[in-house]
Amino acid sequence: MKNLFIISTLALGVFFFGTNNAQAQSTGTTTVNLTLSDVISLETSAAEVNFVYDTAEAYNTDQEYTVEDNIKVTSNKNFDISVKANGANFTDGTNNIPVGVLDITAVAGGTMGGTPTTVTLSTTDQDINTNAALGSELTLDVNYKIPATRSSSSDILGKPAASYTQEVTYTATAL
Amino acid sequence: MSAYLKFSIAFVLIAFCSFQGFSQGISMSPTRIFFTGAPGETVTKTVTIGNSSDAEYIFSVNMKDWHREESGNKVYFEVGSLKNSNAKWISTAETTVSVPPKSTIEVVVTMAIPETATAPVVTNSMLFFTQIGKQADKATQKDGIGIITLFEFGIHVYHTPDGNNNQSLDIVSFNDEAATNMVSVGIVNDGNIICDATVELELTNTSTGEEIKLEPINISMMPEAKQVVKFQLPEGLNGEYLGVTIVKMAGSNDLRVGEKTFEF
User: What is the mean pLDDT of chain B?
Assistant: First the structure.
């Protein structure tokens, strides 16, 4: 019985001593470094928007298209979105339609905050959504509209049938 | 394992997952470049462009002057138009950069600070990476009016002279704009460095004690700039309210507090 007590005491001692030693050997300091940089990401969901005038009614009617999730932004700072045309006219190479026939509206409804607004397209940068809060995959719906007052005017009416195009550039900048 | 370490690891995992999944587009980092350096020095910073899509993107690199209106909106000008422009000091090795699919490239931005730039003022400009459209986009257009959408990134470029280190904003007005149901807070940057801040507004009904805390608005101001921050009020406010606005400057505990009683 006495031997058993001594053996048990030694075994317990070795167990705790050994455990503590083992723990001491596995204990250390790990430094986790986080390097965070400002980043902004932008994508547009639709490469093209087309307005077709193939009937008399089309010229006398507001035409508009709302592209859902047209712009998607991820940013770790608040940001602005502006828009501009890359030229003064929609053109088929010979004939021109002024870009000012088109209104572009940032539509509230996506996940992107900020202050949305409507602009008449020009070659000057114009904000369509300002001071949007930072976030990931924030979406903005965009409405493109040519009012009947413009499509029934000489800006469009009477122009030769053709494909008139212009590039429209959306710009993302940190606040 | 400390709670801080657990939080850090969780944050990294969340951030990693978020940024892996967010986009099939183009990303730019950083969004603002802050140069320092003495007159005559040439300094560089790197912009990283990531392309997570399956398509190649080509960007033209160009500069513009800009300033912020009191409303907070940015207005752009041709290079050299504004007195505090540093656009002419900036260069990149190439004026067009191509970003292959599923790749990341780095663009070195060089600022050559002129010997004559001795005035202790912050200068700025905007560095643009503008997507160049492809002929294939135009070929798919039908008869009618077609829009080809492209995108562009503007990266703020600032130069802060050595010795400029005074961060300070001041509240110069605090007004009720009844016609638009807004309260405006006028702020000036009376320091000599760029100052980021958050502007808060809280209204307390002096009769009932009802408190209304409006969504804070972030601002970023150049030295000597003035900005009017407008808070849209909820409909139906009626009675006397104590308005308190707090301007919290980023990166410090410094703040400014304004207080005024409004009758709505």
Answer: 88
